[in-house]
Amino acid sequence: MAHSKYEYVKAFEREDKLLPNTWIVVRVDGKGFHKFTKEHQFTKPNDITALQLMNHAAAAVMKEIDDLTLAYGQSDEYSFLFKRNTDYYSRREVKLASVIGSLFTAHYVLAWSRFFPDKPLTKPPAFDARAVPYPSIENVRDYFAWRQADCHINNLYNTSFWALVLKGGLTENVAMKRLSKTVAKDKNELLFSEFGINYNDEPEMFKKGSTLVKELKPFTKESRVPIKYADPKYPVVRDDGPDHVIQEITRQETVVTELHCSIIDEAFWNEYPQAVQ
Amino acid sequence: MAHSKYEYVKAFEREDKLLPNTWIVVRVDGKGFHKFTKEHQFTKPNDITALQLMNHAAAAVMKEIDDLTLAYGQSDEYSFLFKRNTDYYSRREVKLASVIGSLFTAHYVLAWSRFFPDKPLTKPPAFDARAVPYPSIENVRDYFAWRQADCHINNLYNTSFWALVLKGGLTENVAMKRLSKTVAKDKNELLFSEFGINYNDEPEMFKKGSTLVKELKPFTKESRVPIKYADPKYPVVRDDGPDHVIQEITRQETVVTELHCSIIDEAFWNEYPQAVQ
Amino acid sequence: MAHSKYEYVKAFEREDKLLPNTWIVVRVDGKGFHKFTKEHQFTKPNDITALQLMNHAAAAVMKEIDDLTLAYGQSDEYSFLFKRNTDYYSRREVKLASVIGSLFTAHYVLAWSRFFPDKPLTKPPAFDARAVPYPSIENVRDYFAWRQADCHINNLYNTSFWALVLKGGLTENVAMKRLSKTVAKDKNELLFSEFGINYNDEPEMFKKGSTLVKELKPFTKESRVPIKYADPKYPVVRDDGPDHVIQEITRQETVVTELHCSIIDEAFWNEYPQAVQ
Amino acid sequence: MAHSKYEYVKAFEREDKLLPNTWIVVRVDGKGFHKFTKEHQFTKPNDITALQLMNHAAAAVMKEIDDLTLAYGQSDEYSFLFKRNTDYYSRREVKLASVIGSLFTAHYVLAWSRFFPDKPLTKPPAFDARAVPYPSIENVRDYFAWRQADCHINNLYNTSFWALVLKGGLTENVAMKRLSKTVAKDKNELLFSEFGINYNDEPEMFKKGSTLVKELKPFTKESRVPIKYADPKYPVVRDDGPDHVIQEITRQETVVTELHCSIIDEAFWNEYPQAVQ
Ligand SMILES: Nc1nc2c(ncn2[C@H]2C[C@H](O)[C@@H](COP(=O)(O)OP(=O)(O)OP(=O)(O)O)O2)c(=O)[nH]1
Ligand SMILES: Nc1nc2c(ncn2[C@H]2C[C@H](O)[C@@H](COP(=O)(O)OP(=O)(O)OP(=O)(O)O)O2)c(=O)[nH]1
Ligand SMILES: Nc1nc2c(ncn2[C@H]2C[C@H](O)[C@@H](COP(=O)(O)OP(=O)(O)OP(=O)(O)O)O2)c(=O)[nH]1
Ligand SMILES: Nc1nc2c(ncn2[C@H]2C[C@H](O)[C@@H](COP(=O)(O)OP(=O)(O)OP(=O)(O)O)O2)c(=O)[nH]1
Ligand SMILES: O=P(O)(O)OP(=O)(O)OP(=O)(O)O
Ligand SMILES: O=P(O)(O)OP(=O)(O)OP(=O)(O)O
Ligand SMILES: O=P(O)(O)OP(=O)(O)OP(=O)(O)O
Ligand SMILES: O=P(O)(O)OP(=O)(O)OP(=O)(O)O
Ligand SMILES: [Mg+2]
Ligand SMILES: [Mg+2]
Ligand SMILES: [Mg+2]
Ligand SMILES: [Mg+2]
Ligand SMILES: [Mg+2]
Ligand SMILES: [Mg+2]
Ligand SMILES: [Mg+2]
Ligand SMILES: [Mg+2]
Ligand SMILES: [Mg+2]
Ligand SMILES: [Mg+2]
Ligand SMILES: [Mg+2]
Ligand SMILES: [Mg+2]
């Protein structure tokens, strides 16, 4: 409706459609969560409730946007995968990133008090967001493998680090030095020999992160079905009969399922082919 | 820390630094607020509380980001101006848009219950965001003039429209036809002759939108100043004296001021030269 | 070597790497060739010599740049296909477009007098260029099909148009009207019934354009091979014998082959699988 | 005209308009001129004829494109400045770069034999090109200062280097070491004390590069002016008189002027204000 002589400034906006026929991944990541997690006293190295809140916000985003087929989260980040031919917001890069980032934030903040009833949100969190196109399924799988490998590497490190500090009584500096140059095997052994921790027994959500897929599930509900007496099935028209019957009908509904499995292994992609469309 | 063979996928990210030596404007705008405002029964055409909540969220963003010098909001949108030489997030377009969009959203959602204590947030709002560079001060001023002209045109229309519907009892369709092809003067007259409304007397916040500027304000606070008895001023060292005195000291602090004036007129820019740096 | 305080201006350049793992097509197209072909009196609608000059320039580009695997030309344009994983100029969009455009131009101008010995180049031609990434083989094939379909549609039209004008004596305006709303079948019939032209018998280069592929061809050359008398094969060291023998050796060399076939049909892609790598 | 089901592939092209209200600089630079200048035995370190050929090609580009107001060249490169509000090719980045690069190349190749009548062009040259927007006049001036400072630094170095090699008989390696860590003053002294060369007396074109500006020059030509006998000035209609007179008329024409002055100093910009529009 609104037109004015100033409108020319809109032309300074850049067109930013992402390449067609590519899979778009949007990743959100907590802004300065080093500080945010401290201020809100998250459990170290993994705060189950905080991770569940992340999963909740991500699931809400998944439900709201039809074209999302897969999401993966760990630490303060979540990645969302669009199907290849999505035309959501005409594939505009900044729209996709900003809208998903904002929606995720809104659900995170709104649900905070439900997940942390005793912990007020003293300073609201923010998430940066980006949208990146990937041209092949292999690239898409490697993207998610990248994030899960990152989860694994960080979690093994953090589990060892905080064991040394919280259980072993080392200062953070000494713990850091102790771990420098160790490889995965060393850390596994350290955890077992010094703290009796079998890393394999750690919660899958910590080791593997969280994966959200969409599934069609049948559901049954009672429904009023009108009776049409002129039907061959009801040959006699009756004035005084009921005008409907109650029947159980079965429909499909899309549900978001949370998993904590390997998404590097082939098996996941075979089991959930709908995750990459 | 984390390195894996999958890391190559990061190279699919695009570098997106905005042109140096330009003023960057980030605008956020409510996603589908047509529906959101209905669901949450905002007053028509202007919900004062909702606008105040927008202003609150925007002021919080202004306070958090030093390099923002000006903000302007109306309806479901807010624009933020960075100073010309900002290096915030290295001027990365999607970072700027997504972080400001997310921060704004977080403050909006978090403060909702304070502004609307009796209205639960049934569905969280989202805001899209964009970042646009402007190369000259004239372009910057025209940008803000564009948004304020938009506010004026829409508000005059909406005020007339809802007067016809809510007070005049017209259907929305008839009201729309009634207003089609009218110019500003016609609407002013209609409001006055039919509803006794002098458009000039409408609240400035509705007609002009809200402008946020930063100002340095002196503030005075009491402060404990330690006494150093070895000072020439206190030549005698005394064991039993106080170790500090309470003094009033004056500092400068940055405050965000909310205005409802014309930002099209020269006067505003003369009065607040710090608004465009 | 050169550093000065002015060097900061280089930062205003935009990074423009094309998405990894995509096939890049560079297309050059004559700038204002409507005028250029008139000024240099090209035969209408197809100037064989001019098309051969285009093919010559394109073949030279193909030979110079290893990563090019396919080229297709028609009218005043030529398209070049890079292999998927090329890192030529780090996949920088403007570098790729400008260098190929410039190289093509240089060969076109340099070879002009050889192709048109009696026609001086009164005004040098220019070609615009662009570089476009395609994420799938199907997109790549459709790209080339697009250009060949364009060749077909235009050539059928132009052949009919110039037959009407040059042989039928119609004015250009009347010829245009005559052809408006005709479909391919109509034009074929018109050519045959009015001018005895069987469109199928037109030269393949006009109907299909020109396709350049690379092939490895064995070639044989005489080569001096030194004799090592200490070899087991030559057990007796002789002072007075020859120090080499002349032998025929066979090597592979890359040659550029020009074709005038359908590149829409499957057959081409089966015969030249190396055309899309 | 041409439409086919394959046309969708055009949508993979990216919109690339450069920011409005900025000054666009297009720079072309010889591709691999290290090798090209060797193969064609350019005089070291400066080949006057080659530089004149560059100037010729650049002047032709300037004449052809109205919106270019300034050009500067040195070594194997040339920069062209568009006026701020140009809409040439809708400010499309790749079009601007590729067309100017191609046009420059065409003129360079076409004029080669005129500048080097005894030196055949054995391998055609190519030029890369780029288009960069600058938002302020200061940035524009600094851009050109950057290129001229580069010319100065390189030319002083190259003059010293080739004096040591060609006149001093040093190997290239020794000459390089000799110059390493020297500053401008050292090189000036070396040239003077060892070779009697006063660097100040070197040709301005070598030291300062070449600058092209546009100027309006009046020119006078004889023109047939028809006589209208019905004019008040010629009251008597005569059948047998001449129907025209020959008159000298004066018009303005745009000429491209070549300069070899400082474009870092204020003076140039004051004398040629039309160079930055
Ligand atoms: N205690 C605790 N900290 C966590 C948890 N999840 C994430 N964090 C912290 C660890 C890291 O300091 C931080 C995530 O690292 P990032 O690389 O994202 O850095 P950060 O968010 O500080 O900065 P950024 O704005 O993303 O560049 O969040 C958790 O469950 N418990
Ligand atoms: N009742 C009421 N509605 C408002 C108020 N402020 C904004 N709105 C509504 C009016 C418009 O329907 C909507 C803003 O228009 P937009 O052009 O931003 O469209 P919308 O947000 O629906 O879609 P979008 O996602 O921005 O494309 O918000 C208010 O104070 N009261
Ligand atoms: N007579 C003649 N004309 C040709 C031949 N090949 C191409 N042309 C002409 C026909 C068209 O007018 C022109 C190519 O059309 P374009 O769509 O490329 O337009 P043009 O180059 O004029 O403008 P542009 O700068 O590409 O937008 O070249 C030929 O073999 N003979
Ligand atoms: N002998 C001689 N050489 C020149 C003259 N002008 C330029 N050159 C040579 C010197 C440098 O090797 C080369 C220009 O350096 P560039 O940095 O542009 O490198 P080059 O063109 O080799 O590679 P590029 O494709 O631009 O990255 O051209 C000249 O007048 N005489
Ligand atoms: O959303 P509109 O229609 O008010 O206009 P816009 O925000 O400039 O358009 P878009 O959101 O599509 O960039
Ligand atoms: O933020 P980091 O360091 O974890 O790595 P990144 O998110 O890939 O980097 P950036 O946020 O700067 O794009
Ligand atoms: O080519 P160089 O090294 O002189 O420097 P440049 O031209 O700025 O670099 P590039 O051609 O890679 O953009
Ligand atoms: O130039 P046209 O009209 O043949 O079509 P195009 O080349 O796809 O358009 P443009 O040159 O403007 O990108
Ligand atoms: Mg990050
Ligand atoms: Mg983070
Ligand atoms: Mg993180
Ligand atoms: Mg919008
Ligand atoms: Mg909105
Ligand atoms: Mg809006
Ligand atoms: Mg074109
Ligand atoms: Mg053309
Ligand atoms: Mg063409
Ligand atoms: Mg270069
Ligand atoms: Mg060069
Ligand atoms: Mg150079």
What does this structure look like?
4 copies of one chain form a homotetramer. By secondary structure, chain A is of the alpha+beta class. Among the domains of chain A are: 122 residues, tRNA(His) guanylyltransferase (Thg1) (Alpha-Beta Plaits); 36 residues, no CATH class. In chain A, helix 4 crosses helix 5 and helix 4 packs parallel to helix 6. The mean pLDDT of chain A is 94. Chains in contact: A-B, A-C, A-D, B-C, B-D, C-D. Chains A and C meet through loops of A and loops of C. Bound molecules: 2'-deoxyguanosine-5'-triphosphate (4 copies), triphosphate (4 copies) and magnesium ion (12 copies). One magnesium ion (MG) binds next to strand 1 of chain D. Chains A, B, C, D: One of its GO terms (biological process) is tRNA modification.
Task: Set down the secondary structure blueprint.
The structure is a homotetramer of 277-residue chains.
Chain A: E1 23-30, H1 33-39, H2 48-64, E2 68-74, E3 77-82, H3 93-115, E4 127-134, H4 137-167, H5 172-179, H6 184-195, H7 204-208, E5 210-226, E6 244-259, H8 266-271
Antiparallel strand pairs in A: 1-3, 1-4, 2-3, 2-5, 5-6
Helix pairs in contact in A: 2-3, 4-5, 4-6
Bound molecules: 2'-deoxyguanosine-5'-triphosphate (4 copies), triphosphate (3PO) (4 copies) and magnesium ion (MG) (12 copies).
The site of one 2'-deoxyguanosine-5'-triphosphate has 16 residues of chain A, from strand 1 and helix 1.
